[in-house]
Amino acid sequence: MDPLPNPSPLATRLRNTLVRYHGIADGEWRVAKKTKDATVWRKPSEEFNGYLYKAQGVVEDVTNRIVDHIRPGPYRLDWDSLMTSMDILETFEENCCVMRYTTAGQLWNIIAPREFVDFSYTTSYEDGLLTCGISLDYGEVRPNFVRGFNHPCGWFCVPLKDCPNHSLLTGYIQTELRGMLPQSAVDTAMSSTLANFYSDLKKALKS
């Protein structure tokens, strides 16, 4: 088990990585799923033998409220159907923490419940916000869970210029679920999970 990292250099590195992903040319992405709420693309990850996913959709709300629903905190468990528990293990400052969370089984439990320990960081980006995270090898793995690993992930949320009470939400996710899983099942689950994330989030913001 690794000790907790120094948060400041890790936060800077994480932000720079996400900004780089945000600058990847459109032509490098392939559409994986399209719904009325979001489009999901993917490309081979540079971090592991899987995909980096990009999801994007317009959400009808102001940037701060949307990000408050996404980042670690009381809102997330209320609406995210995939997340079954969340504990903040360490808080470095208001916008920076280490959290442990668990996810429900997926695809008729072909994908068993997972546990993650993530470093999370929220910062300003252009006129909006970026909330991002990366998994840490920290803490004992609880029984009945496989420990998954999130390579650099994050959500950019910026107000639409001509309609500031709507925001463009763009996510970059690359999750290594680990355990003995067929890659095709993982790919199906990831695309659907990201599309559902938008529809669930929109319902939560309206309620």
The CATH class label is: Alpha Beta
Number of helices: 4
Structural class: alpha+beta
Parts with pLDDT < 50 across at least 5 consecutive residues? none
**Any idea what the CATH superfamily is called?**
START domain
Major pleated sheet = 10 strands, mixed
Q: Into how many domains do the coordinates divide?
A: 1
Number of strands: 12
Termini gap: 41 Å
CATH architecture: 2-Layer Sandwich
Q: C-alpha Rg, in Å?
A: 16 Å
What's the order of the H and E elements? HEEEHHEEEEEEEEEH
Shape: globular
Average pLDDT level: 92
Your description of this structure?
The protein has 207 residues and is α+β, with helices and mostly antiparallel strands. The chain has one domain: Alpha-D-Glucose-1,6-Bisphosphate, Chain A, domain 4 (2-Layer Sandwich). The chain is built from four helices and twelve strands. The protein has helices at 7-22, 63-70, 74-79, 183-206; strands spanning 30-34, 39-44, 51-59, 83-93, 96-103, 114-125, 128-135, 146-147, 149-150, 153-160, 163-173, 175-176. The strands form two sheets. Strands 1, 2, 3, 4, 5, 6, 7, 8, 10 and 11 form a ten-stranded mixed beta sheet that branches. A two-stranded antiparallel sheet has the order 9-12. A hairpin with a 6-residue loop joins β2 and β3 (51-59). The longest helix has 24 residues, at 183-206. The radius of gyration is 16 Å and the shape is globular. The protein starts with 6 loop residues before the first helix and ends with a helix. The relative contact order is 0.23.
